[in-house]
Each structure stands twice: as C-alpha cells, then as structure tokens.
Fold these 2 entries.
Entry 1:
Amino acid sequence: EDQVTQSPEALRLQEGESSSLNCSYTVSGLRGLFWYRQDPGKGPEFLFTLYSAGEEKEKERLKATLTKKESFLHITAPKPEDSATYLCAVSTTTGANNLFFGTGTRLTVIP
Amino acid sequence: ETGVTQSPTHLIKTRGQQVTLRCSSQSGHNTVSWYQQALGQGPQFIFQYYREEENGRGNFPPRFSGLQFPNYSSELNVNALELDDSALYLCASSLAGGKAFFGQGTRLTVV
C-alpha cells in the first residue's frame, strides 16, 4: 500500500535557525514527489516537483532533495513569514495521476 | 494566485441534506481533481475528471459525485450529508500529468 510519512509533526524554530523537514515514502512506482505550503484555511500552494533520485530544486530559502526512499525540505535562515504547514505528496505510476498526501509538518518561526 | 476559484468559501448544512460545491479551473487546464481535508490531516483524493470523464476515484462512497463541464469547470455533489463530511474541500486543476494548482477551498460544516 502506498504510504507517505512526514516528520516531525510540528517544528518551532528561531528566526535564522536552519533545519530540515522529512518526507519518507513507500509507493509501487513513483511518478513524482511534490512539496506544497499551506497557510491556515487556505489551499495548498505549489513549491516543488521532484521526479528522480538525486534531483534538487531551490526557491529562495527552500531547497528540496529526493532519494529513492525520502525527500527533504531544507529551510535556510527561516523568517516568520515561512511559518505554515508544509505538505509532501506523491503521484504514482499506477494511480490516476492524483496526489497522495502526508499529514504535513507545521512550522512556526519565532522572531 | 493560482487562477483556480472555488465557491462558496464557507457553507453550513444540516445532516441529511445535499450540497454542491463549484470549481473554476485555471485557463487551459483540462483536468480537475477534488480533495477532502479534515482538520489536522493531509488532503485525501476524492476523484478526478479529465475532459468531462471521471478518470480515477479514491476511497469515498457513491454519495460523493461530480461533473466536469465543456469549459473544464467542475462540481462536487455530496448527498445525505453526515457530520464526518465536515472538512475543507479542495479543487485542483492541471494539465494531464502536470503539477496541480489548488483553489482556496470550501469550508463545509455539517450540523
């Protein structure tokens, strides 16, 4: 059965304190791995798509990496406006190109 | 701003009633997916429509149904509402096989 597990569930960081969020996955065949940011009461906002092990993508203070078993979202020198829930999702080669989500990591950055 | 709009933004219904939620997809996108997100959880796939045909379905009962129109906008219908149907309902549009862009969601409360 396809599974996506995110850790930690919640993370509190001081402004400027870098850290990483983890997304481990078990799927029959990976089509792509996606990272989204979600603010309270809003829809998820697309951040990155990764397709193959070794791939990396960057956007401002965020960097996403992918291995055959997991993905990391690295946050460098975070700011309070980076506070949000970060969702990881996979699409599989056997599915209808839908997304299978983890439960997210709730990030709080304290000034 | 994703170009995906959902209506209404909030809705309160009574158990047993029926509800219709609407989604206008991003210009040029021919695929619409619907997700249910309970509080504190990741979005769960309900179903997907591609060029007006259902293209995949998650583990939801038949009282969850949908439509996609020639302009690729979509509706989600839920019959015989239950208290557990209270959630944020998200619509995502994409080109087939491409990354999904989400609307802001409809918050449904069943009392």
Entry 2:
Amino acid sequence: GAVVSQHPSRVICKSGTSVKIECRSLDFQATTMFWYRQFPKQSLMLMATSNEGSKATYEQGVEKDKFLINHASLTLSTLTVTSAHPEDSSFYICSARDFLRTEAFFGQGTRLTVV
Amino acid sequence: QKEVEQNSGPLSVPEGAIASLNCTYSDRGSQSFFWYRQYSGKSPELIMFIYSNGDKEDGRFTAQLNKASQYVSLLIRDSQPSDSATYLCALNQAGTALIFGKGTTLSVSS
C-alpha cells in the first residue's frame, strides 16, 4: 500500500496557541486529502476534504477559521488548529488518495493535548 | 444522513475460531465498502475493500457484500490474539470521503 506520513505524532500545547499538523504522501500524488478527528471510544469523524490547489470543503459544524487546511502541493496538506482550547484535544488523522485508487491511506495520527 | 451501523461489541472468540463482524448502511448510493482495523491509540489500517455483491477473500479475511440488504460483513478465519482490535466499517461513493461506523471491538482469547 501507499505510505502517508503524519507529523507530529503527539503534541501538547497551551490553551490559546496554534498547532500545525503535516500530512505527506511519500510515494504517490495525493489529489485528495481528508482530515478526521477521533475522540476516545468514538469513530472517525470527517472534518474536511481538500483537493490540491483548491479551498477545503468543511463538514457541517466544523469551524473553517479555527481549523485551517492548506493543500498546496500534491504531496503535502497541513491542518492548523488555531487558538486551541482543551476541548480541541483529540486524535487527528489525515487520509490521502490519488485519482487512480478507490481506497484511501491513513497517516499515523496526531494526538493533540491542549492544557 | 448517511449512516453506518456496527455492533460495538465486544465480540469475544477463542483462538482459532471464526470471527464474524457485521455492518449495515443506509445510503443505497454507496459504491465501495471498506474494512479497517484499528489498534488502541493507532491509526486505522486497511484490511480490504469490496464493491461487487458476493464474497472477496484475502488470506484469512473474507468480505461479503449484499447491496440489496445493505449489508457488508467481514469474516476472520483462524482468529489470533493479534487480531484483537477495533474493526471499522466504512463506505463511500466515487470520489467522496469515507464515512465510518463506530467500530466493533474484537477480543480473541488464547
């Protein structure tokens, strides 16, 4: 399968600060990337979909000004959590797909803790 | 509202047995169906996907799809303790994001 690298794997930040999470497709060109959030004992909830060179499409209830997504190249997408608060603490997972495949591949996830 | 329903479990099976995991969905327009395995604190790993009615086998895993009944299942033969994890059912339409169920926790005892 294809490799998707997500960084950092774990981050602790102070309330009010911003955190950037990177998602890279290492051996394929990711025309579409997806960002999910997972709270403990819950399923993955889609936050947004981004296509390279376009603005991200956010799911209902997800604040686009708080969760900034940039997909500037075919191998890199970033999620910036701005003015983080403790309720933003969660497991954030990116997923990437190229136009040839049906399946999407996941990054390792980022455990964000806001204190 | 697209919904993917899974029994949360836990499903407990002895080592060597067959584990059967089930999933139902509401959107008849769904085209592709996926099974992922997720260990605690880790990201999901793709097990297999299916988009045609019937069975699809890959090693110890068999996915079964019945679009008329809106039902997809995963059979794990010769279950091992290392198979203990949460199994996520997911689906999508062409080009769209995956929609996930809440997952079924499988526990394989040795």
